[in-house]
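Please, structure for the following, as tokens.
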Amino acid sequence: MNKIFGTARRSLSALGLTAALLMPTAAPAATIVIDGNPSFTYDLATGLAAFTVYQIENTSFSGAEAVVRLELWAFALPYTGSPQPGYRLATCPLASPLPPLSLVMDIRCKALPFTPPPDGTWTLALLAAEYTGAPTDDGYAPRDYRSYSPTVVFGALRPSSPLVAVEFYWAARDHYFITAAPAEIAALDAGPPDGWVRTGSTFPVYDLPAAGQNPLPGTTPVCRFYLPPPFGDSHYYSASPDECAAVRAKFPGFTFESPDVFYLVLPDTLAGVCPPGTAIVYRLWNQRADTNHRYTTNVILVQQTLARGYVLEGYGLTSASMCAPPY
């Protein structure tokens, strides 16, 4: 998913231009206006996007109804309405056409198929496009837009070396545990069959930098606490240095095992959005006296775990706790 960026707006209705798509207006252009500051999110792990738009207006005084579609694009340069090459990433048609002097409010598009652009640095823009019968972009021509800054990078954050967090489950305790430490994984694999057993769920993490080297840009160390039996006999992970410090100060009974068991990316703490090229790591809490957390990037496992009484702990609307690299 991507950050909710600052926006810039310019109407295209009087330009008769096309946003890198070279879409001629086959019919009189409606004056379609995006109101407010729309936002979007996307998740490369699921291949889905979502748009939220306060209001779309057709301010034309006359003419036919306008068939309007929202489109998320990636461009090499900031989009200003001038034609330039780009990649359409996701679309959301409005539920019904807009007659002249009409509007639609609170537009929420969910679970939109998302196709990322090629690896590289891109500027994103959200377009309101009208169907005109143009020969490109499925017949749509842009009418208004928001361009977003800063630029985003697709395909840049890759693990510096292969390292995978492996999930284990102890049925008698109904507890989960993850570790990326090879020695811990080997020890748990060698344990009794009625103890810790692999669930088959894993996700990649960034390894600690070698001596004398810096961490991969954009990553942060993940701290680990052990909660002794009076607190749940469990482990707690965070990629937020502030949260690690706060937990350490608030819960002196927890054992601070490490400031950096591995590295991940901290999501936008307001929006809960992970950078392009990463996947949301969800943290789920069992809400019991024997406190236990489950960590996973698998949305199906998230839904199954929520159905068992767990709750999500994370940032923003997505409840992202951390962001993991792709496999």
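Residues 164-324 form one domain. The first helix runs from residue 182 to 189.
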